[in-house]
Write the structure tokens for this entry.
Amino acid sequence: MKAFDEGVEELQKLLETSVQIWLMGAGVSVGSNIPLMYPLTARVSALVKPPFDQLLAAIRKELPAEAHIEHVLSHLGDLVAIASRNKSGQVVLDGATYDLAALESLHAEVIRLIAETVRYGFCPSNGTDPELSGKIDAPIVSIEPHVAFMDALFSGRANLESRSRVVFATTNYDTLIEDALALCKRGAFDGFSSGGIGFWKGHGADYLDRLPPKTHQVIKLHGSVDWLRADGGLVVRARYGTAYLSKLENTLIYPQATKYVETQKDPFAELFRAFRGLLTSNESHTLCIVGYSFGDEHINLEIEQAMRREGSKTNIIAFAREVTAAAGTQLPAKLQSWLSDTFSSRIYVASDKALYAAGKRLTPTAAGDLAWWRFDGLAKFLRTGVAA
């Protein structure tokens, strides 16, 4: 128990680092009634109607069984590019021929359905409780878990906030981080100009150096349900429910079909540059990872390259659930790999079973799972220092 308690104290010291980057995945929003990637994939697939359902089925047949909706969009984008170059303007899938118009229409439909599902919420049936589906006039998305997290995070930094920097990077399309910051009387800079409708400015130093006090950078690596492409290709952050900027198929969700990715209009390359810049900072900083499944190799590679860089100042705290294995449970494969890498001394993993630190697995003497790997449990840990 003593070793575990000492490890927790070391972890808490890292959480007091003046520069923190919080990488948040889909797991932080599931408690707010926004589905994880595979339930989202099933939901969107079920909502696609004829004549596009056969095309979607043909695309999914070409992909591995574990492919989710972002993989479908990537593949669909490739097919759009191929059809655009073909003399015939067509592709053949599962013995059927589809033209460019059909591919683009399916792409627009999938984007629209993702945007609707994330905006208004969806909970699949768990075998006991029935399926719940939010609608524009009856959304089911909850903000409370994110507000509780922000309250806990910043209450512990009350005397440090003016001299520290806390950045949020997320793969999620929802707006819960920005909304929770506002409800906690803090600003969010997401790369757009201020106002109900903002235009894309980017994450350049000229903007970041002039941020008002208590305003935090938010890097939405995969886009957002309130980012839309307006006429002329202008990328804007838009209000919901307007007669203009209301085509949800124009929602900017990564990845987009190849024809839409134009350097001067596409923010995704800049978003990853901003994330990379944080990880390669010469100032000591802590990357805190929560709700992330380590399934995005692009993001994993950015982290690994930063950790291996000579003179790297990045430390990692990953909050994760162990997975079932032959001999009990074990960490996800990516975390196991990192803990055996040359930079393992700069990694802490807070799992539901133990704390991994300095190459050791430290377990508490008390029985029962640790709650800090969950988003609500993490908020409690930040507030009270109790991991269980």
